[in-house]
UniProtKB/TrEMBL annotation:
<dbReference type="GO" id="GO:0033627">
    <property type="term" value="P:cell adhesion mediated by integrin"/>
</dbReference>
<dbReference type="GO" id="GO:0005178">
    <property type="term" value="F:integrin binding"/>
</dbReference>
<feature type="region of interest" description="Disordered">
    <location>
        <begin position="245"/>
        <end position="290"/>
    </location>
</feature>
<dbReference type="InterPro" id="IPR013519">
    <property type="entry name" value="Int_alpha_beta-p"/>
</dbReference>
<dbReference type="InterPro" id="IPR028994">
    <property type="entry name" value="Integrin_alpha_N"/>
</dbReference>
<protein>
    <submittedName>
        <fullName>Integrin alpha-PS4</fullName>
    </submittedName>
</protein>
<feature type="signal peptide">
    <location>
        <begin position="1"/>
        <end position="24"/>
    </location>
</feature>
<keyword id="KW-0732">Signal</keyword>
<keyword id="KW-0401">Integrin</keyword>
<dbReference type="GO" id="GO:0098609">
    <property type="term" value="P:cell-cell adhesion"/>
</dbReference>
<dbReference type="GO" id="GO:0007160">
    <property type="term" value="P:cell-matrix adhesion"/>
</dbReference>
<dbReference type="GO" id="GO:0008305">
    <property type="term" value="C:integrin complex"/>
</dbReference>
<dbReference type="GO" id="GO:0007229">
    <property type="term" value="P:integrin-mediated signaling pathway"/>
</dbReference>
<dbReference type="GO" id="GO:0009897">
    <property type="term" value="C:external side of plasma membrane"/>
</dbReference>
């Protein structure tokens, strides 16, 4: 009787295992497909092809799937970019074939944006919530610099496309571009000297990037903000602004990890810097329209 019961128990357990196996994410390693670095023949030093990856889908033309691959040290082959030393590149590789094509994500040629060694493709992500081609993509160049009047600071740049259609164009976002917030100085206690504090100066926005399930949000890591204490920047696609034609993307620097799960609250702590020249951290910067 006891064994009968145990047998039943084992069978139930076996069934449970089978069900959980069926629900598992079982990858078949032998069926993999490897994409070689497309610019191998003209390569100098290593380009780090594959440093970042993301899958993308479009329903256009009967449906297509591809993988976006970042090569943050690559030399670009695109016109207008061939003279820039190692700006980094992002490739779109078709899952139906072997072909990879370099994407022109940073087509804007703002001369204030210094792209050499900028690590374009150092991070990238696509929206998980795919709905009739509205799969946004974010590609970042965390070591991209911005030229201010006299100085150049490593603010980082991200490029965002709002859908996965072939006509999609990327819009440049420079969340840390702010002349007054690059650096500050702090008195060294007990001396008459001061110390430079880099607020946004080496912020490196785009070191990491993530689209959460909420289709109106995007989070970008900026480990160099507040003198390398680091920060995360939340982009919020504001759809309910009074003028329906002007959908603005707001940027909210987050100082505390706890603020990330509930960005709707947009709570921010004071910046712990004893310097009056630090602008009000509550002041939000409005981004471009999308
Ligand atoms: C990029 O081009 C420069 C100059 O030709 C070369 O020295 C460097 O190794 C190249 N880098 C890559 C990743 O191919
Ligand atoms: C960085 O963090 C330290 C330790 O919490 C703090 O003392 C310092 O003021 C912070 N620096 C900046 C620039 O926020």
């Amino acid at each position: 009787m006891l064994f009968q019961k145990m047998g039943l128990c084992w069978r139930a357990l076996g069934l449970l295992c089978t069900v959980s196996l069926a629900l598992c994410f079982n990858l078949e390693p032998l069926m993999h497909h490897a994409f070689p670095y497309p610019y191998q023949d003209q390569q100098g030093r290593e380009a780090y092809f594959g440093f970042s990856v993301a899958l993308q889908h479009s329903e256009e033309g009967g449906g297509a799937n591809w993988v976006l691959v970042g090569a943050p040290r690559a030399n670009s082959s695109l016109s207008g970019k061939q003279d820039i030393p190692e700006p980094g590149a992002v490739f779109s590789c078709s899952l139906a074939g072997d072909t990879c094509e370099e994407l022109h994500v940073d087509a804007n040629s703002d001369r204030k944006v210094v792209k050499d060694h900028g690590w374009l493709g150092g991070s990238l992500d696509t929206q998980p919530d795919f709905q009739s081609n509205r799969q946004a993509t974010c590609v970042c160049a965390p070591l991209c610099k911005f030229r201010y009047r006299k100085k150049i600071y490593m603010n980082g740049a991200c490029y965002i496309a709002k859908d996965s259609l072939s006509s999609a164009t990327f819009v440049e976002e420079l969340p840390l571009e702010n002349r007054g917030k690059q650096r500050s100085s702090k008195a060294i206690p007990g001396t008459d000297r001061g110390e430079t504090i880099y607020i946004y100066g080496y912020g490196q926005a785009g070191f990491s990037t993530h689209f959460p399930d909420d289709p109106t949000k995007l989070v970008v890591g900026a480990p160099g903000v507040y003198h390398w204490n680091g920060s995360a920047i939340l982009f919020q696609d504001v759809m309910d602004v009074p003028d329906p034609g002007a959908r603005k993307r707001r940027e909210v620097p987050i100082e505390d990890e706890e603020d990330v799960p509930d960005p709707g609250a947009r709570k921010r702590r004071e910046v712990p810097i004893e310097d009056e020249s630090v602008p009000d951290p509550g002041a939000r910067k409005d981004g471009r329209c999308h």
